[in-house]
């Protein structure tokens, strides 16, 4: 299929203009070059570049958007890309590296404080891009599932001719907020590619000497996007944190099939604010419109996917108990008023304790009737009437919608793939996917890699429990690795996620930079902290260092009464540590941007 957008560019940079000249043009009647005025912020198409002798030139892969910071607008361009593979003859690319190029040639119009703030804003945008999980295509609707492409095409006769960014599902288009100025001019459509954040893997596979393509795509929502502890629950519009649509695709010859699942935070107003505790207690917010938000959430799911089976995997005891019981009560009410919604709870940790992971089959059996009813999308180009659609979706969640969730989703996906490959004739009736070792390894590792990618984006580390996903068994080594990842999650969630949350809010336009920040408008980046909260950790580190240095010193070089000094240092360290811990919220790296929302929702 012919590319709908230009693929690669030479970027010419002059004092007054940017020129984007396509290296691999889309099919157009005449050459077109995008001219961007750096001074007047105007966009025009021209046939040829005027004399640009001495201009700086760069090779770029895609124009991702235009970001507004303190110094003015910036071009955000992909400098490197990696081919992931092909879906139905359409190439899919991953953004490898990106550049942020300012329109302003100098920053003399900024105060020194604004220059510092602008530099921090730049680092936030670069931090988001550094996630390295952004994907795009020049001809494929990567924001849409196969079934949606088919359904939209049937409803709109001109759908195939629409620009990709106009077809795109805004919920999953991560550069949507930064391409608005470009998309406002229809003639620029061949310079715009919609970009998703999530996970894409495409594998060429063979079973029984029959080749097929195995694809897994996860699309993260831009609504209520953020980090693990700073973005929980639901908002008043029905959007939930960490909402991810995962589509598993199989293509064999002219036959295509896909199975879609979703995950998302527990759809209540609740918080789990970090305060240096290892696992803060989840708290349901009282006096808010839970029911209204829940209904909006499920109305949206039903409109997009059909019937919904909500699978809750949270604990029925311990810190998660109260949240789980509240969720269950609201869901029981929801299921009586919304006939297309069913609730299924399964205490994952209780049922699978002591590595009894075979008990997951209990849950899968409970869901088997709906999985057969929901079917999956299937289409064969040989016979346009030979088609089925997926009529419902499994919405799975645990407390984070990461580790337990991915395990269950991979099991449901395996069942669906088994049926798809049988229908395609790749497997004979009754033949099991797991009996083919090479593909079995591919399947398990792809789903484990999907878990790692989504977990890194939300929690900062790779997923837990992936040893089961990769091998089908839970191991002591896997449990040890989970402990290491949990420790790193603790560090990231308490000491770095505020910056990451700010970066996401800035990238998605949840925080709009005011050009007068730091002058007539207070800078949100300048957050006051009392001196003691900066000095106490340094004193603690010094005491701990002195303690261990004393242990390493030869006995004859120790000062008199060494055990007494060791005890003093130890007591002082414990005392300062207890002070820090009791004032935990003062040491956590909280978000600084989008304060109006944070104050209103108390870091929901």
Question: Could you give the topology of this structure?
Answer:
Blueprint: E1 9-13, E2 17-22, E3 33-37, E4 43-46, E5 56-60, E6 62-69, E7 72-87, E8 90-102, H1 112-129, E9 134-136, H2 146-155, H3 164-167, H4 180-183, E10 196-207, E11 210-220, E12 244-252, E13 255-263, E14 270-271, E15 283-284, H5 290-305, E16 307-312, H6 321-337, E17 341-345, H7 348-351, H8 360-374, E18 377-380, E19 387-388, E20 392-397, H9 403-424, H10 437-459, H11 466-471, H12 476-495, H13 497-507, H14 532-552, H15 562-582, H16 584-587, H17 595-601
Helix pairs in contact: 1-13, 9-10, 14-15
The helix-and-strand class reads alpha+beta
Biggest beta-sheet profile: 13 strands, mixed
Helix content: 25-40%
The tally of helices reads 17
Shape: globular
Describe this structure in words.
- The chain is α+β, with helices and mostly antiparallel strands.
- Among the domains are: 228-238 and 269-495, no CATH class; 529-601.
- The chain is 37% helix and 22% strand.
- The strands form 3 sheets. Strands 6, 7, 8, 9, 10, 11, 12, 13, 16, 17, 18, 19 and 20 form a 13-stranded mixed sheet that branches.
- α1 packs across α13 (497-507), α9 packs antiparallel against α10 (437-459) and α14 runs antiparallel to α15.
What's a concise summary of this model?
With 604 residues, this protein is an alpha+beta fold. It has helices at 112-129, 146-155, 164-167, 180-183, 290-305, 321-337, 348-351, 360-374, 403-424, 437-459, 466-471, 476-495, 497-507, 532-552, 562-582, 584-587, 595-601; strands at 9-13, 17-22, 33-37, 43-46, 56-60, 62-69, 72-87, 90-102, 134-136, 196-207, 210-220, 244-252, 255-263, 270-271, 283-284, 307-312, 341-345, 377-380, 387-388, 392-397.
